[in-house]
Amino acid sequence: MKIILNGNPHETQAPTLDAVLVELDFADAVVATAVNGTFVNAAERAETRLADGDQVEILAPMQGG
Amino acid sequence: MFEFYGTPVASRLLLGTAQYPSPAILADAVRASGTGIVTVSLRRESAAERGGQDFWALIKALGVRVLPNTAGCHSVREAVTTAHMAREVFGTPWIKLEVIGEQDTLQPDVFGLVEAARILSDDGFEVFPYTTEDLVVAERLIEAGCKVLMPWGAPIGSGRGLNNAYGLRTLRAHFPDIPLVIDAGIGLPSHAAEAMELGYDAILLNTAVAKAGDPVMMARAFAGAIEAGRLGFEADPIEARDMAAPSTPLMGKAFL
């Protein structure tokens, strides 16, 4: 399955958002997630199934003004 | 001491965390400023670099409260989604709400701002709206649930100071009980002092400190200027007048 991860094509076998985070070694990282422009909170990640072409955003704390 | 949404605020300087020459200089500038609140953001995390994790560890070690922003958002939907993501990551209901309406001036889309502020306030957020000095927009933001207003001094990063001191003074006079923070456009410590002398409660700075030749020294300079400006306001300054008024008593002057 090919998803768009943070704006770039990404090949994955992970069926859920939670599994994608594990695949990327983000399981323990401080991140927030969205799929197709909709916020997915941490508790919902395990049941959020991904489909081909889904746009996944993984955001982390960053410098800001 | 004043409050943001019931939280006592000791320092009247809020500091942005972007554009510093290094993480160490950022940390030193935060300490030198004496601030208790820094602004932060959310951006895409790289699996290879994991820069966000390092940055978050640095901020947590400083022991300051964070004010996450929705910088770069141009629509209500984008800003609201970003706010939800920030609340989960940073564990705070505070959100510095930016809905940008124009790319050259980065001025807020005040229509979208009011709409997003209402949605977020209804959802339990404590919204710090980045707005203009427009009184009617300020009224709408307060109606939407905002208990803090953050009007710009000038466009973000411009360093121009207070473009419309009259408008800002009017805003202060209309909302004597709402915490008002100048957010954006400050370049010099004197600009910050001027805003504080108008009775503003605090100043939010980033570029003026981060891009100074010596950010740590500039952080100290702003801290001093903001304190001086506040003291000047509280001390009830004299009215300006057109003609001179002698300060040395004339009584007892010799006839020479």
From TrEMBL, chain A:
An example Pfam family from this entry, by short name, is: ThiS
Q: Which InterPro entries does the annotation name?
A: Beta-grasp_dom_sf (IPR012675), Mopterin_synth/thiamin_S_b (IPR016155), Thi_S (IPR010035), ThiS/MoaD-like (IPR003749)
List the CDD domains hit by this protein, alphabetically: Ubl_ThiS
The record's Gene3D superfamilies line, in alphabetical order, gives: 3.10.20.30
Domain of life from the UniProt record = Bacteria
Q: What is this protein called?
A: Thiamine biosynthesis protein ThiS
From TrEMBL, chain B:
Molecular function per GO: thiazole synthase activity
Q: Where in the cell is it found?
A: Cytoplasm
Tell me which EC number(s) this protein carries.
Answer: 2.8.1.10
Sorted alphabetically, the keyword list is: Cytoplasm, Schiff base, Thiamine biosynthesis, Transferase
> What is the enzyme's main class?
transferase
Start and end residues of each Thiazole synthase ThiG domain:
4-249
Pathway assignment: Cofactor biosynthesis; thiamine diphosphate biosynthesis
Which reaction does this chain catalyze? [ThiS sulfur-carrier protein]-C-terminal-Gly-aminoethanethioate + 2-iminoacetate + 1-deoxy-D-xylulose 5-phosphate = [ThiS sulfur-carrier protein]-C-terminal Gly-Gly + 2-[(2R,5Z)-2-carboxy-4-methylthiazol-5(2H)-ylidene]ethyl phosphate + 2 H2O + H(+)
Q: Which GO terms describe its cellular component?
A: cytoplasm
Name the catalytic site residues. 96 (schiff-base intermediate with dxp)
- Give the UniProt record's GO annotations in the biological process aspect: thiamine diphosphate biosynthetic process
What this protein is reported to do is described as: Catalyzes the rearrangement of 1-deoxy-D-xylulose 5-phosphate (DXP) to produce the thiazole phosphate moiety of thiamine. Sulfur is provided by the thiocarboxylate moiety of the carrier protein ThiS. In vitro, sulfur can be provided by H(2)S.
Entry's HAMAP family? ThiG
Record's subunit section: Homotetramer. Forms heterodimers with either ThiH or ThiS.
User: Per the similarity annotation, which family is this?
Assistant: Belongs to the ThiG family.
Q: What is this protein called?
A: Thiazole synthase
